[in-house]
Specification:
With about 220 residues, the protein is mostly helical. The chain has one domain: Tetracycline Repressor, domain 2, CATH 1.10.357.10. The protein is about 70% helix and about 0% strand. It is built from ten helices and no strands. The longest helix is centred in the middle third of the chain and has 26 residues. The C terminus is likely disordered.
C-alpha cells in the first residue's frame, strides 16, 4: 500500500476516535474501546497496530494532530492582521472560537474525556502543543514591543498569561459553565489584554504609589 493509503487509514482511525470520544462527552467518565474505534473506522486490528502501538499512542497522535490544526489557524489569523495589536486580537478571537464554533467545540469535547485526560504522557504532549501556540503570540508581542505599539509587552510572560486566560474560558465553556455570547467574551478578553499591553510600562516598585514609567 502506498503512503497515501496508509495516511488515509491513519486519518480514518483518528477521525473515528475523535467522533466516538467526543460523543462520550467529558462527564460520563467512561472510555472508548479499541474495538469500537476499529468498527467505526472500518479497519481491523492489524491495520490499527500498523499505525499505533496502543490506544494511548493514538490519543497522543490525536492531540498533536488537533494542535497542528489550531496552530495553522492561529498563524493564518495573525498573518492577516495589519498591526501587532490587531494580531493579538486575532489570536485571542481564533483561540476562543474553539469553544463557540460547533465543529471545533465538538472536537474539544474529546480532550476533556476520561480517554484523553487519563492517557500517560498527555500532559507533556499538551504542554508542547500549547508552547507552539504561544510562540505565535510571543512573536506578535515582540513585534509590538519593537515598534512601540505595545510598549508594556513582555512577550513570553504575556503570551503565557493571555493563553492561560483563553484556556480557562475554553475549559469553562466546554464544561457548560459559560453561556455568554462569543462576541461579548471576545471583546472582554481583547479589551483587558490590549489595555494592559498598550499602557505605559509600570515599575513593580512604584505600583503601590500609582506611578507609571514613561514608555
Amino acid at each position: 500500500m502506498g503512503s497515501d493509503g496508509r495516511q488515509s487509514e491513519r486519518d480514518a482511525i483518528m477521525r473515528a476516535a475523535y467522533r466516538l470520544i467526543s460523543q462520550g462527552g467529558s462527564s460520563t467518565g467512561t472510555t472508548t474501546s479499541i474495538e469500537n474505534i476499529l468498527r467505526a473506522a472500518g479497519v481491523n486490528r492489524r491495520i490499527f497496530y500498523r499505525h499505533f502501538s496502543c490506544k494511548d499512542d493514538l490519543i497522543i497522535a490525536m492531540q498533536e494532530w488537533a494542535g497542528d490544526l489550531i496552530l495553522t489557524a492561529l498563524q493564518k489569523a495573525v498573518a492577516a492582521a495589519d498591526t501587532p495589536a490587531a494580531a493579538v486580537a486575532a489570536w485571542i478571537e481564533n483561540y476562543l472560537s474553539i469553544g463557540w464554533d460547533e465543529t471545533r467545540f465538538r472536537d474539544a469535547l474529546a480532550f476533556m474525556s476520561a480517554d484523553v485526560t487519563g492517557a500517560p504522557g498527555i500532559a507533556t504532549a499538551l504542554e508542547a502543543t500549547y508552547a507552539r501556540h504561544r510562540e505565535v503570540l510571543t512573536d506578535v508581542l515582540a513585534a509590538g514591543l519593537a515598534d512601540g505599539s505595545l510598549p508594556n509587552a513582555r512577550p513570553e510572560l504575556d503570551s503565557f498569561a493571555i493563553h492561560a486566560v483563553a484556556v480557562r474560558h475554553l475549559e469553562a465553556r466546554i464544561r457548560g459553565r459559560v453561556d455568554t455570547d462569543f462576541h461579548e467574551v471576545r471583546n472582554q478578553v481583547v479589551t483587558l489584554m490590549l489595555t494592559g499591553l498598550s499602557a505605559p510600562a509600570v515599575h513593580p516598585d512604584l505600583v503601590g504609589n500609582g506611578v507609571a514609567e514613561n514608555a
